[in-house]
Amino acid sequence: MINPDEMARLGLVLAMALCLTISVFPDTTTAQLNTISTEKTFVTIPATLRLFFHDCFVNGCDASVMIQSTPNNKAEKDHPDNVSLAGDGFDVVIKAKKALDAIPSCRNKVSCADILALATRDVVVAAEGPSYPVELGRRDGLESTAASVHGNLPGPNDNVDKLNKLFAKNKLTQEDMIALSAAHTLGFAHCSKVFNRIYNFNRTHIIDPTLNKGYAKDLRLACPKNVDPRIAINIDPITPKKLDNIYFRNLQQGKGLFTSDQVLYTNRRSRPTVDSWAKNSAAFNAAFVKAMTKLGRVGVKTGHNGNIRRDCGAFN
């Protein structure tokens, strides 16, 4: 495989860069990518990253999450675990695909799955995270069903054992799981996802005792009992627009928004990694790059196991 070249930024220039390379090397299934410019948005960056994760964890990195449902098939994107995926992430891939295919020599040469993988790397860089080479050559999947999503995505209340089991299914280690969890340093969540931790934790505690008391108070102010559950709050209260190791420092202080975040610190097996990366951003960046590369290899389709879609939202 040929890896993309240099640091990148997200945008429609992605399509042009891929096109120019493919025009020079028409027989290759991969391409090199040069500098890309982008408009950074608070929604697009986490939306694209989350879309890639949800795609790869269900039937592999094959853009099956982008398929639209039809009267005869309820697709992955309409499963309850995926309905909250922001449209901005889909739009990034669709626009890049459209621009790419508008050039005759590039039409139907690059899969939606590869475009999503590249876009994901680029939003990581746009969020001041580490750049990394993206392995290319994926084909787009030939099926997408809502039923296939069930039980394959981590939930906000998962413990370390459940998280490890789910990630292990995709050949990802506990260290990979902790590194990828740091994607929660970006974006926002709906109040409904944290109500149980701040109002009805268990019979003994109304508020989750692992929550920082000041942070719990802030969450209650942002998400009062009668608030519209769709109201959004930052997942990372300190640096919500930057992919960095502050996520781990937040966990040390009891400021993990989801139970699945905070357990990484309260669990004795995962805490040493959290402590290590909280004080060493270079080590975290290296682990994140390693984990993202491994994630991008999950369930990849090649040859006759997939194809290159003309429309990312529909099968050929």
Record keyword descriptors for this entry.
globular; disordered N terminus; mainly alpha; 12 helices; 316 residues
Percent of residues in beta strands: under 5%
Mind telling me the C-alpha Rg? 20 Å
Secondary-structure element order, N to C? HHHHHHEHHEHHHH
* Tally of DSSP β-strands: 2
Give helix % range.
25-40%
Determine the oligomeric state from the structure. Answer: single chain
On the 0 to 100 scale, the average pLDDT is 88
Chain-wise SSE layout:
Layout: H1 13-24, H2 44-56, H3 87-101, H4 112-126, H5 160-168, H6 174-181, E1 188-190, H7 195-199, H8 213-222, E2 232-234, H9 246-252, H10 259-266, H11 271-279, H12 281-295
Antiparallel strand pairs: 1-2
Domain Plant heme peroxidase family profile: 46-316
Cofactor: Ca(2+); heme b
EC number: 1.11.1.7
